[in-house]
Write a structure and sequence with these properties.
Blueprint lengths: L1 H19 L2 H54 L1 H10 L5 E6 L5 E4 L19 E6 L10 E10 L2 E10 L1 H48 L18 H49 L7 H31 L6 E4 H15 L3 E3 L6 E4 L1 H18 L3 E9 L2 E8 L33 H11 L3 E6 L5 E8 L4
Parallel strand pairs: 7-9
Antiparallel strand pairs: 1-2, 1-5, 3-4, 4-5, 6-8, 9-10, 10-12, 11-12
Helix pairs in contact: 2-3, 2-4, 5-6, 6-9, 7-8, 8-9
């Protein structure tokens, strides 16, 4: 039970670091850490490779010197080679010539009188390589030792050459010291440059933040500056401006919705108050049946507006949620055709095929009725309501012979409270919510609705619904 608590205690500083340290400092620390680790690994590799290279160079020098002595022994004899060895007074390369029984025949001046410098013997014609730290030279440096065996006149000799590694070790120490001093300085320099560059790169973000912080709900017209470079910050600024465009449009739509809803609700309420005033004054007399009918009509209109507003409000809140079952669309279309014939003097035409789809019967009936009422409101003499199946879709077309819909307005006609005529009368203007409800219902069923050129002279609303799993 104590381990989770320990982990939580360890996670506390990490969370505090992430919470209190900004992006700029995080990137700076990350860059400095990466550079420091990379330089440290590179430095270790450099020192290691340098040491090995210098050791191989010293070994090659000792080997070359030993081969020269062997060649001299073969040409001029051991005595001449011994004189050459004794005459060399260099401090970095020393040599010995050993005879039978490891007897020292000749040595460099530095180790004159000393025993054999290496303990391993080399057979004639072979070479043995060693690294020794205890040669009797007194400089305290390690040596690379090469032993070469040679046979002359049936007598075995050995040539031992030792090359000092003092210079190599000094070079390695110098490079190591430079790296130990230079790496932290370089890491700090990288951190400083990163801090400055990241700050400069994040300046557009800070500018955006200040601009956005100044935007209020009362005025959404301000936009953030877009950097000229086509990079991630430019795309971020453009995305934020697009978001502000949508918010401004949504706010304007909400304000227009409230204003239009207030107007639409005010009209029937005013009419009801006027009728009640006349009825209450006692002057209605025999006109009471007409007054009651007018009040009923206004109450029905008020109820319809409220129902439409509630439907759209619910759609905005949680979306339209159809209860999908098998629906005979031909029955819905036939019922609407019959309703139009009974309630209007228009000629009702069109062709109805037998089509079944999966959807919400009540919502589809409401959408179809809104389309039919819209067509009847704008038709002069004729309305056609047709239904057919095209591939995996059911297609409903509602046409009228009215004035039609201009092509520029065919997209926005499905927005709320949009009416193409300037009047707001009940006869021609409507409420402007019927087609918006149609769009919401069709979208919830995975279909599409749009306006095309009228088949009988006016406008044709084409509604396509997927057949589903019926």
């Amino acid at each position: 039970m104590t381990e989770p608590a320990h982990r939580g205690a360890d996670a506390g500083p990490v969370r505090a670091f992430r919470r209190n340290v900004g992006v700029r400092l995080r990137l700076t620390l990350a860059a400095s850490a990466v550079v420091a680790v990379a330089l440290a690994v590179s430095g270790i590799a450099l020192v290691t490779l340098l040491g090995r290279s210098l050791d191989r160079s010293a070994d090659a020098t000792a080997t070359q010197r030993g081969r020269e002595i062997v060649a001299l022994m073969r040409q001029e004899g051991p005595d001449a080679a011994g004189q050459s060895v004794a005459a060399s007074v260099g401090e970095t390369t020393i040599a010995q010539i050993l005879g039978p029984g490891r007897q020292v025949l000749a040595s460099s001046a530095q180790i004159e009188g000393e025993p054999a410098i290496a303990h391993r013997d080399a057979a004639p014609g072979t070479e043995a390589h060693d690294r020794l730290d205890d040669l009797p030279v007194g400089d305290g440096a390690a040596y690379s030792v090469v032993s070469l065996g040679v046979r002359l006149n049936s007598v075995d000799y050995q040539v031992m050459v030792a090359q000092s590694l003092a210079a190599a070790q000094s070079s390695v120490r110098t490079v190591s010291a430079l790296l130990l001093v230079g790496l932290p300085i370089l890491a700090l320099l990288v951190g400083a440059v990163t801090f400055a560059l990241v700050g400069r790169s994040l300046w557009p973000v800070e500018s955006m933040r200040r601009q956005v912080s100044a935007i209020t709900a009362r005025d959404l017209s301000t936009r953030v500056p877009v950097p000229s470079a086509q990079d991630e910050l430019s795309r971020l600024a453009q995305t934020m401006n697009d978001m502000l465009d949508r918010l401004e449009q949504s706010q304007a739509t909400a304000r227009r919705f409230v204003a239009d809803a207030s107007h639409e609700l005010r009209s029937p309420v005013s009419a009801l108050k006027a009728i009640l005033h006349v009825t209450g004054s006692g002057t209605a007399g025999s006109d009471w049946p007409e007054s009651r009918a007018a009040m009923g009509a206004e109450a029905d209109r008020l109820e319809r507006i409220v129902a439409e507003l509630l439907f759209l409000a619910a759609a905005d809140d949680r979306g339209v949620r159809p209860v999908k079952k098998d629906v005979d669309l031909d029955d819905l279309v036939a019922a609407e055709r019959q309703r139009l014939r009974a309630g209007t003097s228009l000629t009702i035409g069109g062709h109805v095929g037998a089509v079944r789809c999966t959807g919400d019967r009540h919502q589809l009936s409401q959408a179809l009725r809104n389309l039919a009422d819209n067509a009847a409101a704008h038709a002069r003499h004729r309305v056609d309501v047709s239904l057919c199946r095209q591939g995996a879709s059911a297609v409903i077309e509602v046409s009228d012979d009215g004035p039609g819909v201009p092509e520029a307005d065919r997209a926005r006609i499905f927005d709320r409270f949009v009416r193409l005529d300037a009047s707001r009368t009940r006869v021609s203007g409507g409420t402007g919510l019927g087609l918006a409800i149609v769009a919401e219902v069709v979208r919830a069923h995975g279909g599409t609705v749009h306006v095309v050129d009228g088949l009988i002279g006016g406008a044709t609303f084409r509604l396509e619904l997927p057949l589903g799993a019926s």
